[in-house]
Write a structure and sequence with these properties.
The chain is α/β, with parallel strands linked by helices and 319 residues long. The chain contains 10 helices and 14 strands. 38% of the residues lie in helices and 18% in strands.
Length: 319
């Protein structure tokens, strides 16, 4: 298939480009490079385009005539979304709405959406399944939920078929060493811990030590970035089957690890010690997020290749 990968120059998107290419698909990356990196797009075509530019988007659809779209082009920093909500609603909601309208105008009716566990908000039970109430507590999560609601309406009105993946904490690097996280500033826990282990006099911060958890730090479910990309391909295959209904899937490993546990695991794997600084918790961060991904495992036959936290961490410490 010919696939448009929106945000394909970013962390998850660039891994998606590589995995889709290796699976035999023709890929076109569309990215405005606001946070992505051109040299991270290792395969296929590249087009610099902002989702708010409907006219250019339309010209690209007419040029390439894609069969499907995968969308990773969202701003995704919870803290920033609290202080700059307009930025998140403009890009994540209005930009996606522009994209969907151009898709319909060009009869491209298959959409795989990179959503987020942030749509759930504070968990009412653990592990979280797809039926869990959706009560996002930050503009980032709200923007993702808004898009999911738009997708339902577009399916009912226009026949646009979609699969939406609500995944938990994306982690890890390309095992071949070709791709990695390159956020500036880096806000994800694991790369910051690994940096603290590798760089002399570097430290790592824990945000919140008074959560209602076993050691007071937040608990998260980590899933390797390649497993996320593999799941998106399974989602596309699902849409290609006759009479499949649009749906949502959780993605995770079904296991939760506290921030302290992750730090201790990195110290154990790298055999390095480093300073840990305790700071106040961040507004908008739930204490516990752990996925129930039974639906994806059953309907998509999804099986994570990186099953343990140790396996994920080791892909970050490749020399």
């Amino acid at each position: 298939m010919k696939i448009f990968i929106i945000g394909g120059a970013g962390y998850i998107g660039s891994h998606m480009v590589k995995i889709a290419h290796l699976a035999g698909h023709s890929v076109v990356t569309i990215d405005n490079l606001s946070t992505g990196h051109r040299d991270a797009v290792l395969h296929g075509e590249f087009e610099n385009c902002d989702l708010l530019n409907s006219k250019k988007l339309d010209s690209l659809f007419k040029k390439y005539k894609p069969d499907a779209v995968m969308h990773f082009g969202a701003f995704s920093l919870v803290g920033e979304s609290m202080t700059e909500p307009n930025k998140y609603y403009q890009n994540n909601v209005i930009g996606t709405l522009n994209l969907l309208n151009v898709m319909i105008e060009n009869n491209c009716m298959k959409f795989v959406f990179s959503s987020s566990a942030s749509v759930y908000g504070d968990p009412e039970y653990i592990p979280i399944d797809e039926r869990h109430p959706k009560k996002p507590i930050n503009p980032y999560g709200k923007s993702k939920l808004m898009v999911e609601e738009i997708l339902k309406d577009f399916d009912a009105a226009y026949g646009l078929k979609f699969v939406s993946f609500r995944y938990f904490n994306a982690a890890g690097h390309d095992p071949d060493g070709e791709l990695s996280e390159r956020h500036d500033p880096e806000t994800h826990l694991l790369p910051n811990i690994v940096k603290a282990a590798r760089v002399k006099n570097e430290s790592v911060s824990i945000f919140g030590v008074e959560n209602d958890t076993k050691d007071g730090t937040c608990i998260r479910d980590y899933i390797h970035v390649n497993d996320i990309a593999d799941a998106h391909l399974l989602g596309l295959n699902y849409l290609n089957k006759d009479k499949q209904q649009s749906t949502v899937f959780n993605l995770g490993n079904g296991k939760g690890f506290s921030v302290r546990e992750v730090i201790d695991k990195v110290k154990d794997i790298t055999k390095k010690n480093f300073k840990v600084i305790e700071k106040d918790g961040r507004k908008g961060d739930p204490s516990v997020l752990v996925a129930d991904d039974t639906k994806a495992r059953k309907l998509l036959k999804f099986k994570p290749k990186f099953k343990s936290l140790e396996e994920i961490i080791k892909t970050l410490v490749i020399d």
